Amino acid sequence: MTDQLIAPSAEHHGAAASVSWWRDAVIYQIYPRSFADSDGDGIGDLPGIRSRLPYLRELGVDAVWLSPFYASPQADAGYDVADYRTVDPMFGTLADARALIGDAHGLGLRVIVDLVPNHSSDQHEWFRRALTEGPGSPLRARYHFRPGQGADGELPPNDWQSIFGGPAWTRTTDPDGTPGDWYLHLFAPQQPDFNWDHPAVADEFRTILRFWLDLGVDGFRIDVAHGLVKAAGLPDVGAKTEWHLLDVGVSPCFDRDGVHDIYRSWRTILDEYPGERIAVAEAWAPTLDRVANYVRPDELHQAFNFSYLGTAWDAAAQRRVINESLTAMRQVGAPATWTLSNHDVVRHTTRLLQSDEGDVAGRKPAEVDPVAGLRRARAATLLLLALPGSAYLYQGEELGLPEVIDLPAEVRQDPAFHRATGQDGYRDGCRVPIPWEGDRAPYGFGPPDGGSWLPQPQNWANLSVAAQQGDPASTLELYRAALALRKADPALGAADNLRWCPAPEGLLAFERGAALRCTVNMTNEPIRVRRPGEALLTSGPIELSDDEVEIPPDTTVWWSV
Ligand code: NOJ
Predict the structure, then answer these.
(1) CA 353, CA 340: separation in Å to the nearest integer?
(2) Which atom from ligand 1 is nearest to the alpha carbon of 118?
(3) What is the pLDDT of residues 247-275, one digit of tens each?
(4) Comparing C-alpha atoms, which of 378, 375, 283, 400 is closest to residue 337?
(5) Alpha-carbon span 289 to 263, nearest angstrom
(6) Hey, which of 20-24, 417-421, 475-479 has the most confident mean pLDDT?
(7) Cβ–ligand 1 contact at 276 (below 6 Å)
(8) Which of 244, 319, 454, 555 has the fewest CB atoms within 10 Å, measured from its CB?
């Protein structure tokens, strides 16, 4: 089978690379600590990932994106980086990273790594020295240190709130033990924000990009891509809450026009390397048009489509967001991207059934009927995989994993969980290690006596990879079939060619390429329509007659027309 691949190793980094592989790529997010644990410490690692690459190749994805595995005290699960060029020992070594990239390329999989440029860890050498060297340290200029307000500087320098809850400022103690300046952290106190006006910061990140590109990675996912540049003088936001900070033209710390200069300079670096190395922005901008700014031809390649992720399960709303996404991206010549789950949001098996799914993260997971949740999630996935552009999948969604909603407080590790009113206080439930095989935890995630850093539910045996593979009714086989069909029809992902078809209210119907129609019943009632052609793939059972079909609620069908 290997000879059927467009192997992205030697050739893909050379002239024979397929053109713009990323425009329709299906990219699978690996959350390293929760994927596969090779050494039994309960935390997934790079050798574990390496051992499971053949599974991903068989699943049919084009690339993997790895959440951070760099040296880090793990105050925010690795999004607090202490050394950008070192692998944290809990995940392995640089040699493991190199071997993983080599193996992935040998299997025809590309590798995207996470880059965290908005903030470092407070254990990063620059920040540690900035503190120990005291107020005169030149390293302080690489972060945002400011004197406090009030008679004794006892109040934060401005009114910004951390995304994780509480003030976005923490006061330091000077080397002589007296209270000192404050520093800015849009996230946890252990994540001080870099000052991107300082040339050493920009230089450092250009070097980091080259380091990983030289190691062979195919691209980067840019964390908080919208946050790097802050308004001069760090002005107060007034009465606005953190979410209002995203309003157009209002935020002093998000989606500032200045970020685009940074991405232009990064694009020139990416383009120096063969094989179309890419970058995808995690950019929470207020409108799709503002998101499109990040993927102009001389900037990044893709941006996550959080508008789509946050749209309710409603035919009119879905049609609107799909149209708006395609229009916004078309204007800048970039592919749209589609995603339903990641490590920050409630898994879509649970979220799409919650009444608050309009809230983009569905942050307060509620108990839902698991059968109904899975039915809707499967329908949503088949819709997503029929859309033009690139799709991002999150590990475990191919198994239909639900959000784990009953983790006790003492095992939770999300830094926001214990900070009242934080944005993302409930993220542990989508990060539970995934089940591979066996009838008991850790279900092949690691050695039988290894445990897992978050406890796995007792009823996950029938959701494991081993339990599902070969069963045509399983969610795993649905994903495999959809990805195989997508691969077999290049017109499916690639061209920006969606055509809406007339359909009764509540039924989404569109065609792609020459021969595929996708119909999605988003209502609570069955819908009977003329049968469009041969059913290629369905997310659930349908009733067919010679010339009609009855599509049950929450069901998607791919037709050959
Ligand atoms: C976005 C990441 O996806 C999230 O997990 C992290 O907490 C924040 N950025 C801060 O780095």
Answers:
(1) 13
(2) 11
(3) 556 789 999 999 999 999 999 999 999 99
(4) 283
(5) 17
(6) 475-479
(7) no
(8) 244
